[in-house]
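Slide 14.
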Amino acid sequence: DQVCRENLRGYIDLDYVSCPVPKWNCYCGWKYAFASGWHGFETPRYESVTNSTGAVRNSTGAECMGVMYTFSVWSYLTLKWMIQQVVILTLILF
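Slide 15: predicted structure.
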């Protein structure tokens, strides 16, 4: 999550940025999935990035997941949330 946030800072809203699958593109939500012909938002390549500690490093850019991968992660997160709600209700009612 930290690498995604560092590389995307200043380009997009970081509220929903995460990295659910290591070494994949960042999950940025639906808002950014439709950019670049549904491929997902991309930052410029090869630039200096200042991380949260103030250190400057070279970045090869970052990409948000496109529509297909965003749908996959969103479906998983939604299903997980729904199952949690059923479990909570079951525990409360029984």
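Speaker note: The mean pLDDT is 86.
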